[in-house]
Amino acid sequence: MATPGLLISAPASGTGKTTVSLGLLRALAEAGVAVQPFKSGPDYIDPAFHHAACGRASFNLDSWAMPEALLDTIVAQGENADMLLAEGAMGLFDGAAQRGASGQGASADLARLMGWPVVLVIDASGQAQSAAAVAHGFRAFDAELPFAGVILNRVASPRHERLVRSGMEVAGIRVFGALPRRPDLALSERHLGLVQAIEHAGLDALLSDYAALVREHVDLPALRQAARGIRRPTASLAAMKPPAQRIALAQDAAFSFSYPHLLAAWRQGGAEVRPFSPLADEAPAPDADLVWLPGGYPELHAGRLAAAERFHAGLAAHAAQRPVYGECGGYMVLGQGLIDRGGTRHRMAGLLGLVTSHADRRLHLGYRQARLLAPAAGFARDRQLRGHEFHYSTIVAQPDAPLAEVTDAEGAILAKTGSHRGHVAGTFFHLIAPDPS
Question: Residue 275 has what pLDDT?
Answer without folding.
Answer: 98
